[in-house]
Amino acid sequence: MLSHFSDIRERAHNLSTDMRRGKFQTYHMSEWPTFDAGWPREGTFHLLIILQPTWDDCQQLLQVLFTIEEKERIQVEAQKPSPEQVWPKLRALYETGPPPDPHRYRPGDWVYMRRHQQQTLQPHWKGPYIVILTTPTTLKVDGVTPWVHYTHVWPADPHTILKDFVPEWKSQSDKDNPLKLRLHRSHLPH
């Protein structure tokens, strides 16, 4: 884990004479033989065995010996759930039954969106909007920035929509990245 042990050892050596706090102490290189610990061999770090620090002591050690990036990486690894925590939850999910059926909306469909903050005498649904993209649970509709959950839309009758309201869409591939696709809406005549 510590491929850069010589850097850590040098930092610890430079800081060890200044740091003496309660139970957690780092000793100067000349003091190690006094405690029959010896200096750690390259690639091993026996500080936990020698001092038996508490969690707070380990946090102090993190602040002294590691850079910000190293600390963040260590804390992310420590917060990852272990397989013993994950597998029972996954088993419970799979045993509840099959996944729900996907929604029926496709790109090109017209939908009304639920209005969450409704004023007096204002309809419950706004739109109609045309569906541009879909995922298994959400829709991207024209004219609305965030993605919308499929349970918050209602299908609109495409025959009742005025022809002047229907925009035309054009796709253009990206010059630098062939996996990117850019969608452009043509301007409607007013």
Automatic annotation (TrEMBL):
Residues 170-179 have a biased composition (Basic and acidic residues). Residues 170-190 are annotated as: Disordered. It comes from the Eukaryota. Residues 2-52 form the Gamma-retroviral matrix protein domain. One of its GO terms (molecular function) is hydrolase activity. One of its GO terms (biological process) is virion assembly. InterPro entries: G_retro_matrix (IPR000840), G_retro_matrix_sf (IPR036946), MLVIN_C (IPR040643), Retrov_capsid_N (IPR008919), Retroviral_Gag-Pol_poly (IPR050462), Retrovr_matrix (IPR010999). Keywords: Endonuclease, Hydrolase, Nuclease, Nucleotidyltransferase, Transferase. It holds the Pfam family Gag_MA. Residues 181-190 have a biased composition (Basic residues). Residues 103-158 form the Murine leukemia virus integrase C-terminal domain. PANTHER family: GAG_P30 DOMAIN-CONTAINING PROTEIN (PTHR33166). This is (raccoon dog) hypothetical protein. It comes from Nyctereutes procyonoides (Raccoon dog).
